[in-house]
Amino acid sequence: MRWILNSIVFAIAFGASGQDLSMAIDKEEVLIGEPFVLKYTIVSDTKIDTLVYAHQEVLFAAKNSANATEVGVSTPYELEVLKEFKDTSYTKEGQFFWEGSYELTGWDSAYVVIPPQHVQIEDSIHTFPAGLIYINSPVADPSKPIYDINEAFTELPKEDGPLLQFLKNNWWWLSLMGLGIIGVVVFLATRKRKEPTPLSLRQSTLQKIDLLEKSKGYESNLKEYYFDLSIILRRFFAAHYQERILDKTTGEIESILSDYGLDQKMVLLTRQLLTQSDMVKFAQSKPSLEEIQSITNDARRVVNEVADLDLENE
Questions:
Q1: Closest by Cα among 139, 120, 132, 152 to 32
Q2: What is the rounded average pLDDT of the residues 19-40?
Q3: In the prediction, which pLDDT does 12 show?
Q4: Beta-bridge mates of residue 27
Q5: At residue 7, does pLDDT exceed 70?
Q6: In sequence order, which residues have a C-beta less than 8 Å from that of residue 18 and are 6 or more positions away?
Q7: Alpha carbon distance 298, 295 (integer Å)
Q8: 118-164 pLDDT, tens digit each
């Protein structure tokens, strides 16, 4: 009950501040080494006298979610900062604007999650939403020539050794024996091989939630546990509805779920899950073990409700 009251107080305080924080990436997909721009924006109804953002310089710390079977997105991924961080502030139509941008690139193929970034406005800490970009490997250009590699060879002795002489005299039946062995191995491997049944989106998402809960990550890093649970849920919505979800606010996600006909009770439960996750990550909330288990089970309920609704509509 305490964390619900804290969530309400946090939402009221944030709404009363009259500030809107957003994040934008100018491309959804880039090749390895291709630059892209990451931009943060703050819009305020009143002038901001104090704004502190600790920008990153040589490397930008992100998360790697290239492995779809891995729980959460805990693997670090470093983006290279190509141009130093630049920010500016200005006033337009009675509103105060602050903008800061990076030019970044990645050097390994992956789905890269841009974690939420924190900024201090006056005496309060606020958070930009997370983002996602796909860094892909370039495709070889068949129109470009392939150059030979100059190799140096060592001449063999003119006299053949006993082994070479044996191979020369018996190569034909040795070849037949080798082909026979290869054929038997291929036959046995093909007969035993069974194509694994792919998991449905519901099954794979519930499996990730189960693995996350079994890891008991909340005992060592509660914030990381809630962040991973939030990302698993957001990625499920993105794959199910084919919408960009990771860079959406909680209110925007709530609107998307309502538009797709999700039961209002489940919409409110989803909002409660994401808000509780934000409270733990950014407002120093410390839920009990029972509350952690309850919110994990609520995440399973939301996944099942969304999947069941899709089956009913078919």
A1: 139
A2: 92
A3: 40
A4: none
A5: no
A6: 44, 45, 46
A7: 5
A8: 999 888 899 999 889 999 888 777 777 665 556 666 665 666 667 77
Residue 200 has pLDDT above 80, yes or no: yes
Q: Categorize the per-residue pLDDT at 41 as very low, low, confident or very high, splitting at 50, 70 and 90.
A: very high
User: How many Å apart are CA 181 and CA 189, to the nearest integer?
Assistant: 12
Q: For residues 276 and 268, what is the distance between their CA atoms, to the nearest angstrom?
A: 12
Beta-carbon contacts of residue 49 (< 8 Å; ≥ 6 apart): 122
pLDDT of 216 strictly over 90: no
> In whole angstroms, what is the distance from residue 136 CA to residue 247 CA?
20
The token duo for 204 is 């794979």
Q: What is the pLDDT of residue 104?
A: 93
Q: What residue type is 52 in one-letter code?
A: V
> What token pair was written down for 178?
């080798």
Going by C-beta distance under 8 Å and a sequence separation of 6 or more, which residues neighbour residue 206?
A: 300, 303, 304
